[in-house]
Amino acid sequence: MCNMTFEETGGENSVERMESVGQALEEVLSSALPQGCITVGVYEAAKSLNVDPDNVVLCLLATDDEEDVALQIHFTLIQAFCCENDINILRVGNMRRLAEILGGVKPGGEPMDVHCVLVTNPQSALWKDPALSKVNRFCRDCRCLDQWVPVINLPDR
After folding, report:
1. At 45, which CATH number?
2. What proportions of the chain, in percent to the nearest 5, are helix, strand and coil?
3. Is position 3 within any domain?
4. How far apart are CA 48 and CA 39, in angstroms?
């Protein structure tokens, strides 16, 4: 059920809320990374979604190049799969900042493919993170407004 007021759907509160959700997303990524709850890369994400979609709590899609047709096809397939499996999806602007949060490079020095990032539950127990709850609530509210893949810009540091 969606009970959003006019103030929550637009205006100045909307900008503040977007910034707040961007900060919450950064907190989610920063806390999930040391727990090993991050999957980075389009191919790696597809493998993970195929093996255990119930363990994925959030899917992030990021691009600075909207013209890459192959990447857009991958995104469309991943989005469809996530919608089918009730996985929250966010489009993330500022790929450079996303790479910084995630460490930027793989072991061996090659740059990470941050076009798709999955956040999963830790194996030990269900993850109770207020920042993740805030991001999930934002995704749910956006779906109520027929915005299935909202865009969030990560704040620069």
Report:
1. 3.30.1330.30
2. 50, 15, 35
3. no
4. 8
Beta bridge partners of 153: 93
Q: Which region, left, alpha or beta, applies to residue 10 given φ > 0 means left and ψ of -120 to 50 means alpha?
A: beta
Instruction: Give the β-pairing of 56-62 and 38-40.
Output: unpaired
104 belongs to a structural domain: yes
pLDDT tens-digit map of 113-147: 899 999 998 765 555 778 988 999 999 999 888 88
6 in a structural domain: no
Q: Which residues, other chains included, contact 142 with Cβ-Cβ below 8 Å and sequence gap of 6+?
A: 148, 150
Distance CA 108, CA 117 (A): 20
Residue 11 in any domain: the answer is: no
pLDDT at 108: 65
For residue 142, the enclosing domain spans: 19-150
Six-digit token string for 120: 């999963």
